[in-house]
Amino acid sequence: MPDFISSPGLFVKEQKPRPVGGFRGALYKMTGGAWNLGPGAKQRQEDDLARRISRQLQGSYNTAILSLKGGIGKTSTTVGVGLTLAEYRGDAPCAIDANPDSGDLVERALGEGIYQQASPRTITDLLENIESIDSLTALARYMHHAGRLHLIAGEQDPEVSDSLTAAEYLRIRKLISSYYSVALTDCGTGVTHNAMSGILQSADNLVIAAGYAVSGAKRARSTLHWLASHGYEDLARNAIVVITDKDEVSSRVDKDAIEEHLSGICRELIAVPHDRGVADGDLVTLDVLKPETRRAYKEIAAAIVDGYR
């Protein structure tokens, strides 16, 4: 016979998870928990996404977010996904602005007004003092914080911003890997600027940003083909393509055809719906986004963490 010491679980009834919202949640609340039908299908899906995002990791991982064209949701995806990772993971994620064209990652995460009032330290300042950084406290002096999302600002001086080399990026990546299990790198536009070989060399997976236009779909496909033909076959095969409906495209655009054009050449394709909280090019905060947009960012975050093996 089992006993309490060797098999304590046999003597405790398994409790169903508490339903939240909808008829099931209302019934549970009305009966004081006496009637618990358990969570519905939608809540189970949400709970599964949360479990995938919060999965404990052994080591440090890096996801690069890139595109061949600007203004199609690359930085907003970085911020939205970064904030989502920060919400569900026990460890804070880090986002690095490696955009050579005066990137605005930190402005999109903090708001331009708050960023202007904050310490102006950028990735260039971090590199100049990297040898003296030997703790998370020392590193924090060169970072900005949007809640639990920690960010490294890109260089804003146009004469300096394009000078980040692959070797310099790898030094930063090595430093970040000592303190963060998840890092996102906003790469800027294109795949051939100075730092890109270092970014691709250290990336565990990729997010390719695209838009609902034939030209955008072709660029995303070209990016994946370029990666596959330049020694990054695994990154291309396991890439996540994110299509953001940033400009609320015309009904004449066949969204299904564009998605079908891209879906067969990547691990996963996820669409982000049109949302003023993303499209305005200003501050991105989860609280003001549509539920469908937040759900898309959760799907992207879960797919990213799924790729960390």
Give a description of the structure.
- It is a single chain.
- With 309 residues, the chain is of the alpha/beta class.
- It has 15 helices and eight strands.
- The protein has helices spanning 22-30, 41-53, 74-88, 105-110, 112-117, 123-128, 136-140, 158-161, 166-177, 196-202, 214-229, 233-237, 255-263, 276-279, 291-306, and strands at 61-67, 94-97, 144-146, 149-152, 182-189, 205-211, 240-244, 268-272.
- It has an eight-stranded mixed β-sheet with strand order 3-4-2-5-1-6-7-8, with helices on both faces.
- Strand 7, helix 13 (255-263) and strand 8 (268-272) form a beta-alpha-beta unit.
- Helix 3 crosses helix 15 (291-306) and helix 9 runs parallel beside helix 10 (196-202).
- The model has no long low-confidence stretch (mean pLDDT 85).
Tell me about the largest β-sheet: 8 strands, mixed
| Unreliable residue runs | none
State Rg. Answer: 21 Å
Distance between the termini: 41 Å
Question: Any key phrases for this structure?
Answer:
309 residues; alpha/beta; 8-stranded mixed sheet; globular
